[in-house]
Design goal:
The complex is a heterodimer of chains A (313) and B (250). Chain A contains eleven helices and 13 strands. Chain A is of the alpha/beta class and 313 residues long. The N terminus of chain A is likely disordered. Chain B is mainly α and 250 residues long. Chain B has one domain. Chain B is elongated and about 60 Å long. Classes of the chains: A alpha/beta (313), B mainly alpha (250).
């Protein structure tokens, strides 16, 4: 786990995209955020992970100025997001969980309306549709779009004014695997253009695949902030070896040197070990190395450990 | 396209694409006109105007006020529930520009309702005759729509669901319609009820249209009614500013 706060070095790095200092927020009795401090760097793909109700959405809403923190300071692109600052908002794109679309309009009409609200011409709407690969749906009513298409239209809505800083609240929720992957490509290309992206998700594989750094939040507190790789390594979680149950008995596996735990799941004997190489050789001698599958620790393991959930194989 | 023009277009498209709602906005008041018009055909209220001179302006004002109130209340509730107000909040466009676009659609709807409705009432079978002062109905119409748009903003600011909008708006509109002389000439109501009805904006809207179309009270009649409607519009706009919320989640 690294320090949540970064200190500018002598060379004077660019101002951070977002900086939170001791931010707290309560709703009545419920403490949604408790003394959260973090910095999002310019050009970074920053993930916010946490269980439902962890305070992720509140965190994003405070960053975009939709809510005012009870305590602490917030700086976004060098300015304060509260009270409403339209010059600052012009540089920020937000995709919220509830996709806001104009009633009974087509995708193209919706985006043209949003473009006009930003003082942009219709070409901006066409460009945003192209960007999310939805140009062929311009004449389709928003209500008739599929879940994935709606998600992409919501992204286009957030991108229409070419913001420098983009906030995405669970952008791939309720998408099938193909739609998720295609949205990932859009997000990667945005990162490639040098934009800063702050993205909440509870898909751990998504955070691992996309994010430069992730903040893990639970019960309103910041539990960890680091790159996905560092978080996994700092966990020192056991690796798992999987062998078909008809090839190896639990007793045989437990007899091997270096094995921590053996379980049977879905017809496979699962061997947990912190001495993966040694145990792999030993198991390979017993059943043939090609029948052994290995599973290393993932961000999900780190996440479950940190958020206090019971870890499952 | 300016933000105002784009929002007006979006609001207009959302409105006309809801065919059922459009149909009933126009058909519902006409239905009342046909029923009451045929029922009391050729009759005159004691010492007053022909019955059609009460019922046509009454139903007309009620139909326009009803459409303005319900339409604006539903729109505001939907915009807030679907987070469109938040979307607007993040853009440089001021909120009054967005609300003005909905107001423009309400005014246009009211004007089309008035033309269609008056044309039907002028048919020989109903027998409405317009006095020379009929153009005075236009400022009455403008201020009447404004007042009921303001009431709609209050209702839309309070209600979070379509059910709540319908419940509150009906609770406001149905008793007011009966107490303001929309379906029944005010001149036939007991004196105390006539006096009480002056606190209702629909009473002034009905009176204003009646005065203008029948030439009652010269120009002073419609002018007084316009003044009263302007006061209601101002009061409810102030109230709407207090009930306005950007989001259902506070």
């Amino acid at each position: 786990m690294s320090s949540a706060r970064s200190t500018p070095d002598a060379a004077g790095p660019p101002a951070p995209a977002v900086r939170l200092d001791g931010v707290s927020k309560s709703y009545g009795e419920v403490r949604a955020l408790d003394d959260v401090s973090l910095t999002v760097r310019q050009g970074e793909f920053f993930g916010v992970l946490g269980p439902n109700g962890a305070g992720k959405s509140t965190l994003v809403e405070i960053m975009v100025g939709m809510r005012r923190p009870d305590a602490g300071t917030v700086s976004v692109l060098g300015g304060s997001p509260w009270p409403r600052d339209t010059a600052l908002l012009r540089r920020i794109g937000v995709q919220t969980q509830s996709s806001a679309f104009f009633t009974r309009l087509t995708a193209g009409e919706h985006l043209a309306t949003v473009a006009a609200l930003y003082g942009l011409d219709r070409a901006a709407a066409g460009r945003a549709l192209e960007q999310v690969d939805l140009a062929d749906r311009a004449r389709t009513r928003v209500d008739d779009l599929s879940g994935g298409q709606r998600q992409r239209l919501a992204l286009a809505t957030a991108l229409i004014h070419r913001p420098d800083l983009i906030f995405l609240d669970e952008p791939t929720a309720a998408l099938d695997p193909q739609a998720r992957r295609s949205l990932w490509e859009v997000l990667r290309s945005l990162r490639g253009e040098g934009r800063t992206i702050v993205c909440t998700t509870h898909h751990l594989d998504e955070a691992e695949a996309l994010c430069d750094r992730v903040a893990i939040v639970a019960r309103g507190a910041l539990l960890a902030l680091d790159s996905p790789g560092s978080l996994v390594r700092s966990l020192a979680a056991p690796a798992r070896l999987l062998v078909p149950a008809d090839r190896l008995s639990v007793a045989q596996a437990e007899g091997l040197d270096g094995v921590d735990r053996v379980t049977v799941e879905g017809g496979e004997v699962v061997i947990e070990t912190r001495a993966a190489n040694r145990v792999l050789v030993a198991v390979g001698e017993l059943v043939g190395i090609e029948t052994v599958q290995t599973r290393t620790a993932t961000l999900e393991d780190a996440y479950l450990r940190l958020t206090g959930s019971e870890q499952h194989g | 396209m300016s933000a105002y023009a784009a929002m007006t277009r979006a609001t207009y498209l959302a409105y006309v694409r809801d065919r059922t709602s459009v149909f009933f906005t126009f058909a519902f008041p006409l239905l009342f006109l046909v029923v009451f018009g045929l029922l009391f055909r050729g009759q005159t209220v004691n010492g007053g105007l022909a019955y059609i001179n009460y019922i046509a302006p009454g139903v007309l004002a009620w139909g326009i006020g009803n459409a303005a109130l319900f339409g604006v209340a539903f729109t505001l509730m939907h915009w807030r529930r679907d987070d469109l107000l938040r979307l607007v909040w993040r853009t440089p466009t001021p909120l009054p520009t967005v609300l003005a676009s909905r107001y423009a659609v309400a005014l246009g709807t009211g004007l089309v309702q008035a033309v269609l409705f008056t044309a039907v009432a002028l048919l020989p079978v109903f027998g409405l005759h317009l006095a020379a002062s009929w153009p005075a109905a236009l400022p009455v119409l403008l201020l009447g729509v404004t007042a009921f748009v303001a009431v709609g903003l209050v209702v839309g600011g309070l209600a979070n669901t379509p059910e709540a909008v319908a419940a509150i708006a009906n609770c406001v509109m149905v008793p007011m319609a009966f107490l303001s002389g929309a379906f029944y000439p005010v001149d036939l109501m007991p004196g105390w009820l006539q006096a009480f009805s002056r606190v209702l904006p629909l009473r002034w809207f009905v009176d204003g249209v009646t005065d203008a179309l029948a030439g009652r009270g010269g120009l002073l009649g419609p002018a007084t009614d316009c003044l009263a409607l302007a006061v209601f519009a101002g009061l409810f706009t102030l109230l709407a500013a207090r009930t306005f919320r950007w989001s259902n989640r506070t």
